[in-house]
Structures are given as C-alpha cells and as structure tokens.
C-alpha cells in the first residue's frame, strides 16, 4: 500500500506547497504598505486590506465572513476584500507569496511545519482554535481498524484534513503512508468520492456530512471528533513578518474585527440570526438543519474570544510535538518566535475599549 491516488488537483497542490515552503526566504516583500489607506477606489476613511479565504464557506469558517457581513471591518476602519483562493494550503501559499495581506484560514499544522523551515510567517490570532473536522466513513466502516488496506481521502501532506486523518489512523496503529491508499484532492471533492466508494473515509465538517448525505442519499458513520483525537491547533490568522512590520495597525484592526465576530457568534442571543447567516453564506448547499447541528456542536467550543484562548501555547506545542512525531516537522518550533501575541493583545484592547 502507500501508493497515493491523486485527485485532479492533488499532485499540483502538493508540489506547489513544497516549492512555496522551500523558497520562502527568497520571496520579496509585497510593498511597504504605503498605499493601504483610502486609495484604489475605497472610501478615504477606510484602509484597503485583502484577506485570502478558503473558497468554500462552512460553519467553522464563518468568523471572517461574519466580520464582513456584520460590518466589523468597517467599524475598525477597514475596506476588507475577501479573496476566495482554495483549500487551507492554497491560502497559505498565497500568503507566503504576498498575494494577500492577511490569511485568516491558515491550517495551524502547516504553519507550524513551515516555521521549522525558516518561514517568515507570523501568527496573530485564530478564528477557530480547536479542530472542527470529524472523521466520517461509509456505513460499512465502523471503526478505525476497518480502514486498514482501504482508501482514505485527504487534502495531502501538510493539509489539515490530512493531519487529522494521519493522527486518527495512528491511534489504532495504521500508518497513513504504508497501510492505506490515499485519494488526495480538495475537501469539496470528498462527497462524490465517498458516495462513489472511491474512498471509505475522510475528514469533514458536520455541515459537510449532512449535505453529503442529503445530496447523494447515503449514510455516513461518525468515527471520531478531531478534538478527541489530538489536542492540536486548528486555524491561525497568518501574516508575513515584513507585512507586520510595515502594516501593523491594519493587521491589528483585522484581528479586532474577527475577534468581535467570534464574540457575536458565541452569544446565545444571536443563535437564530447566526444560523440564518450561516445558511445564507454557506456555499455547499447546507440546510438549516445542518447549520443548526453545526452551531450546537461548535459554538462555545472552537471560536475563541480572547488572545489567551486563541493562542494557547499548549495547543501549538502539542501540534508541533505531533507533527514532529509524524515526521512532518524537521526543525524547531519556538512559540515566542512564531506567535505575535502583542499584536493580538492590541486588537483585544480595541475590542474591549
């Protein structure tokens, strides 16, 4: 086993990520931030900022979209453009290349791994700090052990879905590189892949699972919640070090807007409106039932309201330990060198003022 079968974008994606990380120290800075205020058609009172977001919108990706929808970016003086890019790995590559100003959806395991290769990326917040994916499988698969010799779908080495699946399989002694075959592609491909039986399991969100069952008329088993598999970090708001030096104030205000959105989302008084917005903003055809289940599962669990919750040193070190154990992190991870806690704290002070 261990011979990967790649989805239509898998080989390209994996190669692009490897190249992006390997040349990361050679990339030029993306401007000096001098044109960020009021130009390019934006109102003179607002500063332009681009955020590279994952192209699909599911419940765990909501905070950044809510910050836009609820007007929090404008409240903090920003004209924010959300640029749909691809999966989490794609947004990270775009950030490294300087194609966007801020990446709110950086997969934390990949950011940790990149830090070991001398990446200039800095973590400033987290829209969702605890892992949200669940391991779902076709109804003939009832346990981790049942996947030995089968095929699992992931987003490829370095991706969040891959990391979750790798940790899940390791929990029952299955080596993802030797004991299963891989279908590597975008998580948006996993529904058809599971329905066709090309793969027997994948890491998905709760609203994904319900949408897949409704669309394809199949039943899936939930084998595990990711936060039960490993206490590693989910998503990080990521910027390049040179952009942080030149455009710090804008980045602080981006963090403030997303943090305020998290607080709004966690407020029980906003439950019905939050679910309405989740259905409206969702791009995978999620029903209200799916978003209600996602809300009741995730809210109060994965969306941090403070810097202490968002940037927990234990979670990041646990992530580094697991990635080192799996052979993905080859260098050192030093929390204080990668996480710009002071930036987050400035943003928190803005939200609290």
Give the arrangement of secondary structure elements.
Elements: E1 5-6, H1 10-22, E2 47-54, H2 62-69, H3 72-75, E3 78-86, H4 88-96, E4 103-107, H5 108-115, E5 121-125, E6 134-138, E7 151-154, H6 160-170, E8 181-184, H7 190-196, E9 201-204, H8 206-216, E10 220-225, H9 226-229, E11 235-240, H10 241-246, H11 248-266, H12 271-281, H13 288-298, H14 307-310, H15 313-325, H16 335-338, H17 341-352
Parallel strand pairs: 1-8, 2-3, 7-8, 7-9
Antiparallel strand pairs: 4-11, 5-11, 6-9, 6-10
Helix pairs in contact: 1-4, 2-11, 5-15, 8-13, 11-17, 12-13
CATH topology of the largest domain: D-Maltodextrin-Binding Protein, domain 2
| Oligomer description | single chain
Question: Mind describing the biggest β-sheet?
Answer: 6 strands, mixed
Distance between the ends: 57 Å
H/E series, N to C?
EHEHHEHEHEEEHEHEHEHEHHHHHHHH
Low-confidence sequence ranges: 1-43
- CATH architecture descriptor of the largest domain: 3-Layer(aba) Sandwich
User: What's the average pLDDT?
Assistant: 84
Question: What is the number of beta strands?
Answer: 11
Supply Rg: 19 Å
Any idea what the shape is? globular
CATH class of the largest domain: Alpha Beta
Structural class by sheet pairing and helices: alpha/beta
Range of helix content:
40-55%
Strands of the biggest beta sheet: in what spatial order? 1-8-7-9-6-10
Give keywords:
353 residues; alpha/beta; D-Maltodextrin-Binding Protein, domain 2; 2 domains; six-stranded mixed sheet; three-stranded antiparallel sheet; 17 helices; disordered N terminus
